[in-house]
Amino acid sequence: MIRLKVKEVAQSKGYSMARLARAANMDGRTLRRIYNFPHRNVDTDTLDRLAIVLGVDVSELIESVPDDKKPDEGIR
Hints:
Mean pLDDT: 91
CATH architecture: Orthogonal Bundle
Radius of gyration: 14 Å
Strand content: 5-15%
Strand order of the largest sheet: 1-2
Helix content: 40-55%
Oligomer: single chain
């Protein structure tokens, strides 16, 4: 499973959520969803904008984490 690390990276760079949203020219609600639900799907253009503002490579905004579900769970 992919987990977004936008919140952690932004905080380490001294960005508040509001400041990052303004700098990335994105709606604050979108960034709030990214902060609060780091396992949600995010558009690659959004990740690219955030990475540019934060001065990092996009790869620094994501990580692979173990999936809590067994492979056959949740598939119907």
